[in-house]
Amino acid sequence: MIIRKHLFILLALFCILGIAVFRPASAFSTKSGQIYDGNGNLVAIDGVAWIGFQDSNFLGGLWSTPFNPFGTQNGIIQLLMAPWTVPGSNITSSTTGVSFKSIRLPIQPGIWHDVTTVQSSPFDYQVTSSATPTTGNGPFCNWSAGADGSGHCTQSLGAAALLTATINQFNEQNIYVMLDFHHRPGLGDNFRDGTVVASDYTLQTYYQDVGSFVKTAPANVIGVDIFNEPHNLYWFQSNTSTTPAQPAWINVIAAAASAAYANNQNVLLFVEGPGGTTPGNDPLDPVFSQTTAICLAANTKVDNTANIGLGNSNLCTNTAFPLRADYIGSNWGENFRELLDTTQSVNGVAKFNATYFRSQLIAAIQANAFDSNSPTAIANWLLGPNSDGNGGHLVFAPHLYGSEVSGWQTDANDSKIRFEWNFSFLFDSGFPFVVGELGYDVELPATGGEDFFIDSVAPWLISKGINHNLFFWTWNQDDTPVGIRSNDSGYTLFAWKEQDLYNFYNHNTTVGTLAVSASSSSAAQCSAASDTLYLDGSSSGTAFTVSTGSSQSVATGTHTLSLASSAGSIPAGGSNTGTCTSTLSSTSVTVATGQTTAVTATYLYHAPAPTGTISVSASSTSDANCSNASDTLYLDSSTTGTAFQVSKGVSQTATTGTHTLKLASLTSIPAGGGLSGTCSSTLSASQVTVTQGQTTPVTATYKYQGTAGMSCTVTSATVTAQSDWGLPSLVDTFQIAVTLQGFPVNSSGGVSLSGSFVMLNPFIQNFWGNFGMQTSSISGATGQFTGTVYGTTFTLGGFISNATPISIGGNPLKSIVLNGVTCGGA
Predict the structure, then answer these.
(1) Extended strands (E) in 298-404
(2) Nearest to 229 by CA among 178, 198, 280, 191
(3) In terms of Cα–Cα distance, which of 361, 424, 429 is closest to 398?
(4) pLDDT digits (tens, 9 = 90+) for 715-734
(5) What is the pTM of this model?
(6) CA nearest to 266, candidates 330, 222, 313
(7) 193: which DSSP letter?
């Protein structure tokens, strides 16, 4: 009677769900961003994690309930697959609950090394029967150890056998299993520290564990999550700050790929991102790198700068994308930014650098040297022969949580930026994408959990046509955040979580394909130009790289299209120094289900204008007191044209033709150098004509203007001279004393003053000459000087009437000019 009831329940379950009794095809592979089984059927994940094995070597939540139906008692498997059929579940119909299709099964690899480490009573023995050993929890019993007087088993299987039995039970219900290496060997949270290797667990042992498992894995094992949240690893270099040092994450990927290729090429590898949440944790992350960058459009809108930081950087040279992302928040397992093609990210394009990833993967396989299989063959198996995900076995699987878990979250607007640069580019490049963890226990209208899923994650996945690609965390109540079961000892579920997931997994999304490319009629000079087309958004919609062409699945219906750079600001690239403008074949397209809609962008090249050179400098005849004055010359505009620093002298290219010139400050330039006066400036020309390839000079002449209260007075002058008749006089002695009041000097520590004079004498009308003043007499002066300075011996010009020595004493100076300032005569 018990057997008949059990069979009836199982048959009823299959009929309700419309499930045929067959084994899933096991040859999984990837194509066009999707997962397919061996029969070519698209795989829907619709998944949930069932914890327990990572901490106790068995499923949690079977301490008081049976896994399979037992007599009249419902099994938890029914709650998992058809909760609306289970009394007390809170799920009233098939449109309010979920039939999960996949299980993420967290384990720790020590399960294969210490098979006896299992809790004494991992499940309820009371719902087992030797008469019907496959009902209730019977599949997990070691029946060879016998049964008690009531026919209940008394001993469970060993740890590894329990894992196999569990996977087989899911296989009986056509449920896929993804095995999750949740932490390194050991039971409990203290082994979950973001490391992969330990003093007693090497990368080669890990390789052997992956190989041993997949070699004998049941047919429903879809793949392996190669390691959970490896936040103490870096993508392409080892982390030597841990003990022992952690290998580069690419080496772990290489080890898992080598193991799967050697033992079971039908499984997939699910890969999370390494690195922690601390800024700069991974030193080559382009958000924090000193040599690479993520550059965003000038109109990028950010709601919370604590989650998405923007700044200016000389690395962002494309004027269409001048803003550098100097911070983008990420959860553990979420950050894939080191896989970006940084030659494109500086131009606002998020694209997977599959070529670099492939080269690093092959190098890591060779460095590991765990077997003799061809590194190229392993890379082809993982990435596809063309490194585009087609015919491959790699699935990217980040983790996403709201603030109740992570302490922060992004809103709908900022999530678009975060998702685009943290991982979306991987799916856009043709690789499958599955959210490996997302869970919450904060219900709307409160924030921190459900709101993040409803407002940010679900819309993004739906827009990509992959709303089945999620493993919810978790099935169990006994975890943080609390899972779908509200009590692990009963059958009650959180109806609001089931409804959220039903709405998500069953969202009516039909998709077609949008193919974007550069037009064949584009200018050849623009072959290296890179523009981005956005779908339904100027900077946050689905992005297509126009230059190389890309195709993506998009929801059916009408979409608007816009180019990131449509105003001539696209650098031509390559050896061409001009710019390119781009126009779309259509700014609105209608995508039909299962059909491909093509749109092209046509580039037009604009050659740079011919140029010559304008060389600007201060004139050599400028006043020495103005040597520190700085004026600016503008080309073709008073304040906004091309600027030249006159004082230092510069040369700049300018387009050929006639240009007007103008100085910024014609009369009121500070003299600088400690002088309180000002300088005036005049140009050698106010207009110049620039010839292609030629240099056109222009100069500015400065003249010093003293300040009020300054004076200089000649206090004495004595000249003793002799000369041959008719020849210029040669001065033997020339002395002049000048008293200065508030006179400007242009430096400290001793300065030279220079001047010229004209002197009257009885024999001829004029003597004239030049002189310099002794620097020692004003040593230490700065700014303005008050005191007496004395002249030095200099050439005296003029003619005298005989060759005898002549003394001219006390003859008045007609005039003297000192540093451009006229002083009175003696």
Answers:
(1) 308-312, 323-328, 394-396
(2) 191
(3) 424
(4) 555 554 444 444 444 444 44
(5) 0.65
(6) 222
(7) S
